[in-house]
Automatic annotation (TrEMBL):
Organism in which the protein naturally occurs: Roseovarius atlanticus
Keyword Transferase attributed: yes
Name listed for the protein in its UniProt record: Glutathione S-transferase
UniProt GO molecular function: transferase activity
Organism classification: Bacteria, Pseudomonadati, Pseudomonadota, Alphaproteobacteria, Rhodobacterales
Membership in a protein family: Belongs to the GST superfamily.
GST C-terminal domain residues: 94-218
Keywords of this entry: Transferase
Top-level division of the source organism's lineage: Bacteria
Domain GST N-terminal: from-to ranges: 1-89
CDD domains: GST_N_Ure2p_like
InterPro entries for this protein: Glutathione-S-Trfase_C-like (IPR010987), Glutathione-S-Trfase_C_sf (IPR036282), Glutathione_S-Trfase (IPR040079), Glutathione_S-Trfase_N (IPR004045), GST_C (IPR004046), Thioredoxin-like_sf (IPR036249)
Gene3D superfamilies found in the cross-reference section: 1.20.1050.10, Glutaredoxin
Length: 241
């Protein structure tokens, strides 16, 4: 029913977690990012930013009209799936709940996620002699976002009170704190929240999806120009032949 264009990264896990949590039937399509699968004409019609995850729903709700619906960007995907299933998000008529949901979705995709991504780059993939400033800069920003989350969790178990797509978006970038060179020692509520989510069977299944294909530092700036040092020319779709 749903095609999931996926690679085993924190952003890929977000969509996989939601699909596993809802029990929707889906077909994972592994994206070999180091080989440039994201730049094929077929994929860029679905995701013009040439990033995964992306989904194609071949059986959307009736109000979407005829034909499949494609969605790119993890926050948009999770919101679409929450509305499709009426699960893991406040209903549209709950204006205050919906407002808080949007705030935390935008916080994750505009702050926590990008800062974690940059930290990962300078920790794992940048040239050795150029890592120090970037690593220190983004470790500070990563920790700042952990502090925001720590404060939010002071009076609740999950970001909105109940487990929701806000947690599914934020969890993957907290899950990999140690490989990023960060620590949750100063953020005990975040550590407890992370542990609660990690124990969920759906989350475990999502994280294990194509686990053997994780990059693990194999592809770096110095050995893969497809993944790194992209320019506007990178977004000229490759030939489909």
């Amino acid at each position: 029913m749903i095609d999931l264009y996926y690679a085993p990264t924190p952003n890929g896990w977000k969509a996989a977690i939601m699909l596993e949590e809802t029990g929707l039937e889906y077909r994972p399509i592994l994206m070999r990012l180091s080989e440039g699968d994201q730049f094929t004409p077929e994929f860029m019609k679905i995701s013009p930013n040439a990033k995964m995850p992306a989904i194609v729903d071949h059986a959307p709700a009736e109000e979407w009209g005829d034909g499949p619906v494609s969605i790119f960007e993890s926050g948009a995907i999770l919101l679409y799936l929450a509305d499709k299933t009426r699960r893991f998000a406040p209903p549209e008529n709950d204006r205050r709940g919906r407002k808080e949901l949007m705030e935390w979705l935008f916080w994750q995709v505009g702050n926590q996620g990008p800062m974690g991504g940059q930290l990962s780059h300078f920790r794992n993939y940048a040239p050795q002699d150029e890592r120090d400033y970037g690593f220190k800069r983004y470790l500070g920003e990563y920790d700042r976002n952990l502090g925001v989350l720590e404060a939010r969790l002071e009076t609740r178990d999950y970001i909105l009170g109940d487990y929701s797509i806000a947690d599914m978006l934020a969890f993957p970038w907290a899950f990999i704190a140690k490989p990023l060179g960060a620590s949750l020692d100063d953020f005990p509520r975040v550590a407890d929240w992370r542990a609660r989510i990690k124990e969920r069977p759906a989350v475990q299944r999502a994280i294990d999806l194509h686990k053997s294909e994780q990059n693990g530092g194999r592809h770096r700036v110095d050995n893969n120009t497809i993944l790194f040092n992209q320019s506007a020319a990178s977004f000229k779709p490759k030939s489909g032949n």
